[in-house]
Amino acid sequence: MAGERRMPSGWGTMRARDGRAAKRGVRVSGDHTVLLMSDPVARHRPRTPPRRRHRAWREGGPSVARWDAEMLGWAVLSLGLGVLAARAGAVLLPGAIAEVVTQAVLWAAFAVPVVWAFRRSRPRGLTRFRAVDVLIGAVWGVGLRLAQGALDAAAGAPAWPSAGTGGVTSRLVAESVAATTVGPALEELFFRGVVLVCTYTAVRRLSGHVAAVVASLVLSSILFVVAHALVAPLGPTDAAALALVGAICGVCVLVTGRLWPAILVHVVYNGTGIAVVVVGSLYG
Q1: Is residue 144 left, alpha or beta, with left meaning phi > 0 and alpha meaning psi from -120 to 50?
Q2: Domain-located, residue 25
Q3: What's 159's DSSP letter?
Q4: Residue 145 has pLDDT above 70, yes or no
Q5: In this structure, are residues 188 and 262 in contact, taking their beta carbons and an 8 Å threshold?
């Protein structure tokens, strides 16, 4: 008939098919079939659980739950006993043996709390390494050495100190190896690892992030300087330089959340100091 609107071919078949599919909980769209939410199978199908976000140690969580005030107390006690034993060894033992024993006792005082702490738990991200850590260590290590040189110059100390009349000896080489390998690693694991992280975690629970940052920086830096001063006498410039090293290493750990920048800063700082002594001994 004129004016009658004809439906496309197959329209009735499609409507019938859609009606039957809807009763079964299925929606038909073109050549695709989709389960409706009323379908029992689709409704009870297990969903993929959302991925859990693991918190870094600075945010708290189970990775630092046992790095608390108790662990901090044991670490400080170990440091005190180690310093006392080292002082006793320096007084009672002959010179050459005393140096070896003193160094070994101090390293043991650092190592025991570190091993115990990491056996209890490992703060998430603390021991992670990134390539940028090398750059951080080089820049800050050299910068701290320049600052220490400026302090010495202001105090009237020679710009190129020497190792003495013996020059570069096997003893200096052995001390240099220890000062650029085991020494910085153990000291940073103890002071910026155990002491700083325990202090930060304990204070953060009570007073928040800002107080935790200040307390951990101050305590770890003070203990760092005091431990060196009790083992060997320090002048004002040496104490100021060590305090600056401790503060910068602590900031590196708190900002990055990683320990490697602090270790590398310490290694570069010690290494450049040894290089200055070697140059002064050879050409001074």
Answers
A1: alpha
A2: no
A3: S
A4: yes
A5: yes
> Token pair of 151, please?
């302090």
Query: Which DSSP letter does residue 59 get?
Result: G
Domain that holds residue 235: 126-283
Number of domains in the chain: 1
Which tokens belong to 36? 């409706």
CA 157 to CA 82: how far, in whole Å? Answer: 31
pTM as predicted? 0.80
| Pairwise CA distance, residues 69 & 59, whole Å | 17
The DSSP secondary structure of 65-82, one letter per residue, reads: TT-SHHHHHHHHHHHHHH
How far apart are the two ends of the chain, measured CA to CA in Å?
Answer: 116
Report the Cα 235 to chain-centroid distance in Å: 30
Q: What is the pLDDT of residues 219-257, one digit of tens each?
A: 999 999 999 998 888 999 999 999 999 999 999 999 999
Q: Which residues of 223-247 are buried (b: 16+ CB within 10 A; e: fewer)?
A: bbbbbbebbeebeebbebbbebbbb
Q: Could you give the CA distance from residue 164 to residue 273 in angstroms, rounded to a whole number?
A: 15
- Note whether residue 149 is domain-resident: yes
- Between the alpha carbon of residue 177 and those of residues 174, 232, 280, the distances in Å are 5, 19, 18
Residue 215 inside a domain? The answer is yes
d(CA 117, CA 71): 7
